[in-house]
């Protein structure tokens, strides 16, 4: 295992399609809920402890070898918005493409065959971590970090926010990222004994509702 | 062109010349260039010129709308199922160069859903002079500039002007009205591009339209040879 593989996978420039998505930030900016660094931090904190925790747990469980088909169904059940389910599968498919070229693996090939139009992105992420020789905690960290780095980068473009302020928001969230990755790892380790219900099922209703609305906008900068 | 770029094993990698079922995939040609230079109109012109002899499809990469795709739909240059729009998160050059995953998905879906295609045109959203397509996404690229954008653009160069497989200088009919010197543009382009071809095009007078289509036919002939 190479520690540095984690940097390759977590790099925002890893070509897996994330750049076109704002994680709900575009809708929140339009609604006036994100207006600067402080409200971006609130938004990211909320997303981290809901969507972020769920994604991190799914990724960690996949990295530990839980059945990806079961995990994919669990991800569906934890994503009420059909627009967000479609986004998660599209991003899963894009990550799959990038990862199969980067870390070729039989497990990724069979998941790609099982889900030609894409499995949920966190499930794919967990298997990618395995293929890259990384552990469950690493997969959880990647998912948790993505849940906040996506909106932070998007808000730099949406509000012309000072990019240093956006980076400082992410740095201030770091201790909570540790906490979420730990909780996700613990939950994933309980799956073999307690079943898939051991994974958290928290959600952020406003993110689900605004995603449905955002998907109908005729003019938008981000796909979600 | 990278005609024989193949990989071993089941991994579907972007530049593979063959699809998983072993058939040769469609030739992919990218069209890039600054905002308003006439990329979408050039795509429409190519569709009209080639649609009766080839099976073709178009992927657009708009900056923040679906306007380019909708223009092509409105003009009815192709049936709607042959036109797909990719959303780029406000960054077309990222989607055509740095992270091509969404575009590859779009070209793959078109070939899966429509059946064998000869040619897919991938249009970038309007961008700057450094925007070029990844070799993992397209086999050849056309850079479209126009005379009204300033006749010094060929002299300024940049990766689009100097390295594109074909440079199209569009809207030549406007040259007298905007004071652009076509001879100077041609000389500067030659200096920047050495042997690489340049076509001066006017979609209004039809000058050069046939040449662009002819260049595409030659690319396709080399691809299928």
TrEMBL record, chain A:
InterPro entries recorded: UreF (IPR002639), UreF_sf (IPR038277)
First-listed, main subcellular location of the protein, grouped into a coarse class: cytoplasm
Top-rank lineage group of the source organism: Bacteria
Keyword vocabulary terms for this entry: Chaperone, Cytoplasm, Nickel insertion
Transmembrane spans: none
Cell compartments where the protein resides: Cytoplasm
Function description: Required for maturation of urease via the functional incorporation of the urease nickel metallocenter.
The protein's assembly and partners: UreD, UreF and UreG form a complex that acts as a GTP-hydrolysis-dependent molecular chaperone, activating the urease apoprotein by helping to assemble the nickel containing metallocenter of UreC. The UreE protein probably delivers the nickel.
Recorded family membership: Belongs to the UreF family.
Name of the protein in its database record: Urease accessory protein UreF
Species, as recorded: Streptomyces glomeratus
From TrEMBL, chain B:
InterPro entries from the UniProt entry: CobW/HypB/UreG_nucleotide-bd, P-loop_NTPase, UreG
Keywords: Chaperone, Cytoplasm, GTP-binding, Nickel insertion, Nucleotide-binding
Domain CobW/HypB/UreG nucleotide-binding intervals: 29-199
Family: Belongs to the SIMIBI class G3E GTPase family. UreG subfamily.
Oligomer status and interactors: Homodimer. UreD, UreF and UreG form a complex that acts as a GTP-hydrolysis-dependent molecular chaperone, activating the urease apoprotein by helping to assemble the nickel containing metallocenter of UreC. The UreE protein probably delivers the nickel.
PANTHER family membership: UREASE ACCESSORY PROTEIN G
Function statement: Facilitates the functional incorporation of the urease nickel metallocenter. This process requires GTP hydrolysis, probably effectuated by UreG.
Record protein name field: Urease accessory protein UreG
């Amino acid at each position: 295992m190479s520690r540095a593989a984690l940097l390759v996978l977590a790099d925002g420039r890893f070509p897996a399609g994330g750049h076109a998505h704002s994680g709900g930030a575009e809708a929140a900016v339009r609604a006036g809920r994100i207006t600067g660094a402080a409200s971006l931090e609130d938004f990211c904190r909320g997303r981290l402890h809901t969507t972020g925790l769920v994604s991190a747990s799914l990724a960690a469980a996949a990295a530990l070898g839980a059945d990806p088909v079961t995990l994919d169904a669990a991800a569906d059940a934890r994503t009420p918005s059909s627009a967000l389910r479609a986004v998660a599968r599209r991003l899963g498919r894009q990550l799959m493409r990038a990862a199969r070229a980067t870390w070729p693996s039989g497990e990724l090939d069979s998941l790609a065959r099982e889900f030609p139009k894409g499995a949920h992105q966190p499930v794919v992420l967990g298997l990618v971590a395995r293929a890259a020789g990384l552990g469950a905690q690493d997969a959880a960290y990647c998912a948790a970090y993505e849940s906040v780095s996506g909106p932070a980068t998007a808000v730099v473009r949406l509000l012309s926010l000072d990019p240093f302020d956006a980076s400082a928001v992410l740095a201030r969230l770091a201790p909570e990222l540790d906490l979420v990755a730990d909780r996700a790892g613990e939950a994933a380790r309980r799956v073999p004994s307690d079943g898939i219900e051991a994974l958290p099922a928290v959600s952020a209703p406003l993110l689900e509702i605004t995603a449905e609305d955002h998907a109908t906008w005729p003019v938008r900068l981000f796909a979600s | 062109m990278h005609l024989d770029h193949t990989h071993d094993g089941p991994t579907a990698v972007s530049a593979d010349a063959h699809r998983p079922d072993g058939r040769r995939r469609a030739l992919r040609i990218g069209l890039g260039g600054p905002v308003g230079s006439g990329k979408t109109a050039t795509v429409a012109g190519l569709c009209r010129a080639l649609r009766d002899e080839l099976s073709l499809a178009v992927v657009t990469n708009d900056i923040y709308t679906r306007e380019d795709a909708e223009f092509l739909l409105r003009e009815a240059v192709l049936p709607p199922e042959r036109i797909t729009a990719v959303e780029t998160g406000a960054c077309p050059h990222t989607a055509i160069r740095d992270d091509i995953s969404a575009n590859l998905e779009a070209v793959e879906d078109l070939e899966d859903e429509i059946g064998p295609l000869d040619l897919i045109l991938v249009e970038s959203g309007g961008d700057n002079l450094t925007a070029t397509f990844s070799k993992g996404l397209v086999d050849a690229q056309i850079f479209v500039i126009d005379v009204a954008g300033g006749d010094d653009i060929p002299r300024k160069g940049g990766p689009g002007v100097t390295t594109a497989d074909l440079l199209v200088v569009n809207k030549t009919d406007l040259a007298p009205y905007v004071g652009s010197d076509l001879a100077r543009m041609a000389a500067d382009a030659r200096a920047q591009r050495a042997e690489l071809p340049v076509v001066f095009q006017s979609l209004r007078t039809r000058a050069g339209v046939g040449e662009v289509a002819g260049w595409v036919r030659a690319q396709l002939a080399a691809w299928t040879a």
